[in-house]
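Weekly sync, protein design subgroup
Attendees: M.S., D.O., the rotation student, P.L. (late)

Item 1: inverse folding check
M.S. brought a backbone from last month's batch and wanted to see whether the design step gives back something sensible before we order anything. D.O. pointed out we never logged the input encoding, so this time it goes straight into the notes. Structure tokens as presented (258 positions):
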């Protein structure tokens, strides 16, 4: 079995592959202050609940956008599974041609999303990841990473309204039945869903014009399903895009066949 770990700013997603099949997956809160011992105990509990013997794990691949956690993750993987984790970064084979001004600036999460998309087939793609920040990535028909866009995430936008506007309440993010709300809560929900959906559609349209093609639009991340309901431009939601990309990176850097 191969364990893949995607450490994001808000959540960490773990997946367990047996061959090409994703047999288990978990989503936990990212805490930058967790120690290796805490991670070890948490992962052991997840595996125990899934009736998985840790000794069955023969490899691990990690993408992280939270550098303070990397040391703890690395140590915990060694302690828990007795394997050396492969971190996505400089020097790791990905097979992805990155055509931007400074390739080292491209986050590991965006790289594995792009590789995961190319596991679907050849480009072009626009990948939208609804995480703490919402990112848009352009992948050419030749499978080249061309760059993208970053905007504040939906939850960040909701939190900013609550924190900076004294009379606005904190709301659960969900799609209201109508665009025109009849109370304050529905006003906010409409802006966060329909407004964000139009933001997505507008950026996708502009990116497609610059790419001079008709790309497939893939969405992933916590709010992907919600925004796909209001943004007709999204062709497919893939909740495990990053995990698929991590498994592919692991295969490219080991003797295991992809």
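Designed sequence read out in the meeting:
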């Amino acid at each position: 079995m191969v364990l893949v770990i995607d450490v994001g700013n808000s959540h960490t997603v773990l997946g367990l592959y047996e061959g090409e099949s994703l047999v288990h997956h978990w989503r936990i809160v990212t805490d930058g202050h967790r120690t290796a011992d805490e991670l070890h105990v948490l992962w052991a509990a997840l595996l125990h609940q899934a009736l998985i013997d840790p000794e069955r794990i023969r490899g691990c691949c990690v993408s992280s956008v939270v550098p303070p956690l990397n040391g703890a993750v690395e140590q915990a993987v060694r302690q828990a599974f007795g394997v050396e984790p492969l971190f996505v970064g400089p020097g790791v084979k990905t097979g992805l041609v990155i055509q931007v001004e400074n390739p080292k600036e491209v986050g590991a999460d965006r790289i594995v999303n792009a590789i995961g998309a190319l596991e679907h087939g050849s480009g072009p793609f626009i990948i939208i990841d609804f995480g703490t920040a919402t990112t848009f990535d352009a992948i050419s028909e030749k499978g080249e990473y061309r760059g993208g866009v970053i905007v504040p995430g939906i939850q960040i936008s909701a939190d900013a309204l609550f924190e900076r506007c004294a009379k606005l309440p904190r709301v659960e993010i969900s799609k209201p039945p109508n665009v025109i709300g009849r109370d304050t809560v529905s006003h906010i929900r409409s802006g966060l869903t329909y407004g964000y959906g139009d933001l997505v559609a507008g950026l996708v349209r502009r990116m497609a014009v610059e790419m001079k093609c008709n790309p497939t639009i893939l969405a992933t991340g916590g709010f992907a399903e919600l925004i796909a309901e209001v943004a007709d431009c999204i062709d497919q939601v893939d909740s495990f895009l990053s995990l698929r990309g991590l498994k592919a990176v692991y295969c490219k850097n080991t003797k295991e066949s992809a």
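Discussion: The longest helix spans residues 184-211. The two ends are 14 Å apart (CA to CA).
Action: P.L. to compare against the previous round before Friday.
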